[in-house]
Design brief:
The chain is 32% helix and 25% strand. The longest helix is centred in the N-terminal third of the chain and has 17 residues, at 14-30. It contains two helices and four strands. It has helices at 14-30, 45-58, and strands at residues 2-8, 32-35, 38-42, 65-72. The protein has a four-stranded antiparallel beta sheet, with helices on one face. It is an alpha+beta fold and 96 residues long.
Length: 96
């Protein structure tokens, strides 16, 4: 299923900036950055729960926020893109 992960981390302190880097690093491990604090992640249910647990453990619930939008397996009909061509296809071949 395609999951859109967004986050807002308070970066007014060094600890906040560290949390921001840690959360972004975890998101990069699971998906593709599409905006500064927005990731598209193609996950199964277990991976989704694991990512949620990792991110919730890193965040500070008093000043940070996380959002998970579940677009499901038929996400192609739920996503519209305008402007510069998208940089990748979630289920396409990735050449490194």
């Amino acid at each position: 299923m395609l999951v859109l992960v967004t986050y807002d981390v308070n970066t007014q302190s060094p600890a906040g900036r560290k949390r921001l880097r840690q959360i972004a690093k975890q998101c990069v491990n699971y998906g593709q950055r599409v905006q500064n604090s927005v990731f598209e992640c193609l996950l199964d249910a277990a991976q989704c729960r694991m990512l949620q647990a990792k991110l919730c453990a890193l965040m500070d619930e008093k000043c940070d926020s996380l959002r998970f939008y579940y677009l499901g397996n038929r996400y192609e009909t739920k996503v519209e893109h305008f402007g510069v061509a998208s940089s990748y296809e979630p289920e396409g071949t990735l050449i490194v």
